[in-house]
Design brief:
This protein has 117 residues and is α+β, with helices and mostly antiparallel strands. It contains 3 helices and 4 strands, in the order E-H-E-E-H-E-H. Bound molecules: iron/sulfur cluster (2 copies).
Length: 117
């Protein structure tokens, strides 16, 4: 069973590459739709459990070995990005400076906008 939304009523698909899987259980721990579970030292996929795969991608994001592929509900392998190296990330002060320096300036033109837009 999937969570129906205005855009999707079907589950996403989840594939585990058991050659890469180390059965750490992290994916099952964070799984939001709950199709993933750990049993007998193996991760299993059961789309009939709870909501089925909602395509949130948490499992693939936390998997330390890249053993999970999630597709469907507008998520695919190209949705995932590498996390930047720690030394390239902003510290608190830099982040605060960036946010304080940011401005949103909205200027509008005197013209009709189609209802669809
Ligand atoms: S997080 Fe990855 S390595 Fe760990 S159990 Fe899940 S698929 Fe296997
Ligand atoms: S994408 Fe989300 S709901 Fe689907 S198996 Fe992974 S964690 Fe669970």
């Amino acid at each position: 069973m999937a969570i129906p939304t205005a855009r999707h009523s079907e589950t996403a698909t989840v594939r585990i590459d058991y050659e890469k899987c180390k059965a750490c259980g992290l994916c099952a721990k964070v799984c939001k739709g709950a199709p993933l579970y750990l049993e007998n030292d193996k991760v299993w996929v059961d789309q009939t459990r709870y909501f089925g795969c909602i395509g949130c991608g948490h499992c693939a994001a936390v998997c330390p070995t890249g053993a999970i592929v999630v597709e469907g509900r507008e998520i695919s392998q190209t949705s995932f990005m590498d996390i930047p190296a720690k030394e390239t990330r902003a510290e608190n002060e830099e982040l605060m400076a960036l946010m304080l320096a940011r401005r949103s300036i909205r200027e509008f033109e005197e013209r009709e906008v189609e209802q669809k837009k």
